[in-house]
Amino acid sequence: MSRGAGEPGAVAVTPRSVDDGGASRDGVRAGLRWERTFAWSGLVFAVLCLLGLEVLGPQPPSFSASAAETGRF
Question: Domain extents for the chain?
């Protein structure tokens, strides 16, 4: 049987005596790593979108140009 808190040989468990083995710190580090990865992927996405829109799909120089002038775009 388990021993109660008042019995001889009982060990009091307090929040300070419990060692989580660094699990909470690892969880925080994993969360920060995910946030950094997500931020970098967003930045890469924005750069690739801007590059694609400006280089691969340029807009005509003027919206008042004729159809023949904008045909090459």
Answer: 23-58
Q: What is the Cα–Cα distance from 33 to 39, expressed in whole angstroms? A: 10
Angle 32-33-39 from CA coordinates, rounded to 5°? 90
- Structure confidence by residue, pLDDT tens digits, 23-70: 677 888 888 999 999 999 999 999 999 998 888 877 767 778 788 877
DSSP state of 56: I
Of 45, 21, 41, nearest to 33 by C-alpha is: 41
pTM for this predicted structure? 0.46
CA distance 42 to 37: 9
